């Protein structure tokens, strides 16, 4: 797919400086630009590459003053980084603009789908499933019975959505994600053997949620595991039964959240964080990578360490415990002198 500089400028509401008919078919970094590729310059540190890049089109700020001639056609905009991001979004929408129903596939009884949907080959859709308009279900996806998927959501190849799950509008579920698998519920009997506790709840993803590849979200024992609107989940995260994650919280990869924990709005949770069950984490909390959370957390706390300390307390303590071998050696020397 090719675009001219003029077409791109119209999308970005920019101004062409150079050949408006030059065409591009790919994107590139400015230092790696090749003919028929488009790039951008927003960081002044990379300005030197503007004069050597082989890219055919470069998006730049209107305020940029050229120090040398350039071979690329320029598209001048108010904010080059923002404009390039806008263009990436547009490009992705065009790339993913599939519709139609491929063969073979399976759609169960009493299931329905809206207009302009895409259902990829070898996908399985169970009974009594409701699929909205412009939903895309890629090949080898599994949609269980009684699932609801609202308008404009995307289920990528190999994702699994178990029965009774509810997916809101504009959600994205990446390949290998599992939504609605059983929670980890077992009870020991008199023989010490574990008996499974049926997990009969569901999972609810509200609007604009993104779930990364390989992430698993367990269904509730009773009620719902709820991921509120705007939440962004990275790859390979484990979210246990009856967890609730508040609006616009972001969670990085390999984090594990145990059952029935409630996390507030606008939190930032780093990679490999471990969070115990049955606690409450407030709003706007920031948790550094590899932190272990074993207590309730108030609004606006910033935490690090395992078990977690306040961020400033952790840094002050680190100054001391990184020097423990030297400190112990000094104490031993003082004790020897006192003994002598």
Automatic annotation (TrEMBL):
Reactions it catalyzes: a UDP-3-O-[(3R)-3-hydroxyacyl]-alpha-D-glucosamine + a (3R)-hydroxyacyl-[ACP] = a UDP-2-N,3-O-bis[(3R)-3-hydroxyacyl]-alpha-D-glucosamine + holo-[ACP] + H(+)
Supply the InterPro entries for this chain.
Answer: Hexapep, LpxD, Trimer_LpxA-like_sf, UDP_GlcNAc_AcTrfase_non-rep
The record's section on Gene3D superfamilies has: Hexapeptide repeat proteins (2.160.10.10), MurE/MurF, N-terminal domain (3.40.1390.10)
- Pathway(s) it belongs to: Bacterial outer membrane biogenesis; LPS lipid A biosynthesis
Q: Name one GO molecular function term.
A: UDP-3-O-[(3R)-3-hydroxyacyl]-glucosamine N-acyltransferase activity
Domain named UDP-3-O-[3-hydroxymyristoyl] glucosamine N-acyltransferase non-repeat region is located at 22-89
Quick check: keyword DNA-binding in the entry?
Answer: no
Q: What is its EC number?
A: 2.3.1.191
* Active site, UniProt feature: 241
Q: Which UniProt keywords apply?
A: Acyltransferase, Lipid A biosynthesis, Lipid biosynthesis, Lipid metabolism, Repeat, Transferase
| Group of enzyme by EC | transferase
Question: Would I find Lipid biosynthesis among this entry's keywords?
Answer: yes
Its function?
Answer: Catalyzes the N-acylation of UDP-3-O-acylglucosamine using 3-hydroxyacyl-ACP as the acyl donor. Is involved in the biosynthesis of lipid A, a phosphorylated glycolipid that anchors the lipopolysaccharide to the outer membrane of the cell.
Q: How does it assemble?
A: Homotrimer.
What is the similarity comment for this entry?
A: Belongs to the transferase hexapeptide repeat family. LpxD subfamily.
Would you tell me the protein name for this molecule? UDP-3-O-acylglucosamine N-acyltransferase
What is the source species?
A: Mesonia sediminis
User: Source gene?
Assistant: lpxD
């Amino acid at each position: 797919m090719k675009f001219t500089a003029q077409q791109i400028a119209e999308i970005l509401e920019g101004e062409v400086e150079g050949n408006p008919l030059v065409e591009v078919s790919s994107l590139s970094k400015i230092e790696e630009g090749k003919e028929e590729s488009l790039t951008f310059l927003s960081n002044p540190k990379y300005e030197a590459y503007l004069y050597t890049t082989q890219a055919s089109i470069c998006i730049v700020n209107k305020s940029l003053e050229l120090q040398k001639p350039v071979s690329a056609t320029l598209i001048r905009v108010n904010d080059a980084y923002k404009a390039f991001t806008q263009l990436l979004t547009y490009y992705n929408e065009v790339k993913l603009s599939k519709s139609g129903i491929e063969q073979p596939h399976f759609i169960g009884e009493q299931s329905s789908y809206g207009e302009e949907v895409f259902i990829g080959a070898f996908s399985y859709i169970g009974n009594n499933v409701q699929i909205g308009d412009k939903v895309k279900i890629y090949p080898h996806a599994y949609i269980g019975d009684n699932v609801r998927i609202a308008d404009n959501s995307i289920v990528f190849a190999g994702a699994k959505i178990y029965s009774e799950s509810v997916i809101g509008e504009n959600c994205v579920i990446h390949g290998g994600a599992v939504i609605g698998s059983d929670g980890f519920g077992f009870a020991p009997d008199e023989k010490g053997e574990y008996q499974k506790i049926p997990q009969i709840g569901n999972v609810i993803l509200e609007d604009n949620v993104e779930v990364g590849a390989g992430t698993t979200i367990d269904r509730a024992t009773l009620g719902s595991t709820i991921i509120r609107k705007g939440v962004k989940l990275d790859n390979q995260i484990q979210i246990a039964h009856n967890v609730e994650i508040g609006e616009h919280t972001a969670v990085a990869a390999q984090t594990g959240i145990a059952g029935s924990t409630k996390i507030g709005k606008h939190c930032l949770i780093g990679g490999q964080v471990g969070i115990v069950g049955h606690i409450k984490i407030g709003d706007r909390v920031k948790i550094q990578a590899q932190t272990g959370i074993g207590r309730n957390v108030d609004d606006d706390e910033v935490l690090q360490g395992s078990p977690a300390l306040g961020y400033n307390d952790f840094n002050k303590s680190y100054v001391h415990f990184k020097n423990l071998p030297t400190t112990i050696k000094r104490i031993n020397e003082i004790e020897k002198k006192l003994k002598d």
